[in-house]
Amino acid sequence: MTPTRATLRILSLALCLSQILLPGCHRKQGGVSVVGSTSVQPFAEALAEEFMVGHSTEKIFIQGGGSTAGIQAVFTGAAQVGMSSRKLEENEKALIAVPIIYDAIAVIVHRTNFLDSLSMDQVREIYAGRITRWKEVGGTDRAITVVTREEGSGTRETFQNLVMGKKEEISLGALVQDSNGAIRQVVADDPNAIGFISLGLVNERVKALKLDGTEPTVENVRAHRYQIVRPFLFVFKAPPQGIAKEFLEYVLSPKGQKLLMQEGLVSMDQNLPSEARK
Amino acid sequence: MALSSISVLALIAFFIFEEGLPLMWKVGLQSFLLGDRWFPSKGSFGIFPMIVGSFWVTLGALVVGVPLGLACAIFLCELTSPKVGMVLRPMIQLLAAIPSVIYGFWGLIVLVPLIRNHLGGPGLSILAGSFVLGIMILPTIISISEDSLRALPRIYKEGALSLGATHWQTIWRVLLPAARSGIVASIILGMGRALGETMAMIMILGNAAQMPHSILNSARTLTTNIGIEMGYASGNHRAALFATGVVLFFIIMGLNSLALVISRKGRA
Description:
The complex is a heterodimer. By secondary structure, chain A is α/β, with parallel strands linked by helices. In chain A, 38% of the residues lie in helices and 21% in strands. Chain A has 9 helices and 11 strands. The radius of gyration of chain A is 22 Å and the shape is globular. Chain B has a two-stranded antiparallel ribbon. At the A-B interface, α3, β7 and α6 of A face β1 and α5 of B.
């Protein structure tokens, strides 16, 4: 090999390495990365936008990936703040979890579905794959399209714990979508579908069912009548400092809480009045 | 330069094997490849439904893509003037440039409701996946088949025509068989592309982790299995996804080698 070729090889290697190392340097300079639950994500993004208006020199980067991914990112240090839509498991208890707001999970069906209400048992049987046609629960004779989230989802975890119970598994035949929005899209388009999403995301394109006669509303959640509820958590490895601490304080402040409640989330703080939905 | 690209490939392969092989040993090759329950949280790692899903979706893609692609290649090579070719060829290349997420989006918004309303099932199905994949592999099949047809010596065509064969007889009985090795290579490359497609498939296959019984059923492929669960998998679950990568690696390496062997045989 002539000297020039050797030099070229060393230069190209150096170029490659710099591409790998330099971006890492940039991240250390500023900005907080908030990673995790796709349920919390849209609300965190709204909060971050408001926060950055008031603090224009600070940057907050929000990323999805699911509750479990976010918690792992905090463990490894890849993110400063994790978002979770489920409680921490035993092996995650070393982390610090701060509830920022509460959210109910609504079971949704298509707008034109005749049903208004299902019992918890019926929902469990449908998701376990034992009830397969709408006729069996009082609807028309069509096959039920069951839609669920992927396994690492906090929404799914909460649904599994509070609706399915310890022993039942969600049927392998259920369609899997990777965000609340995707489930809402499938249920909004398919007259035979049933799914579960964050109450804050229910809109006029889908119908939220009453569970055991209780309608999923903010009032019913605060009164503990509707019980399929989970905390949205911000997760930290150590007590937060700097921008992360300021962001957390903003989120927990009346202004931040008001923003969240306007989006349909529920504050369990009985001193705060529940806001009307937008 | 060539050395660096080979070394990158070797590094990737080594990494995947290192992460995935121990799990395949632990679970047992047979129960991993032939087991039909994928329940990572309970320790069940059977990927047979995904292998079947990949198989059906790819087969469907070939059923859609090969006749259409071959017809297009023949059309471009034999049946139109060069001017039409000059317009059509860039448009076909454009098909290859469209990001797969756009294909997936189109499939979700247009194709899935069509299937659900007219054929039944949830619409998110193998049929939808095959159709979209078939379109995605068209540029590969068309351009390589057309090149192999063009590469044939002119005397094949001239000889057949001078012996009294019609144009179509010439194409069907002389040119296509002669270009067979190139065409087969293009099909195998299209197959490899179809097997590797992830993003569009996650959006329109429905991702149910069960054995599909009809093309209107939802399914999961080897690639979508990795794509959906990689974000949060840890420990054995993560290793199982790498092991799925090992299986994919072998399949695609095998297909590519086959394509090489067949196309070389033809040239001899």
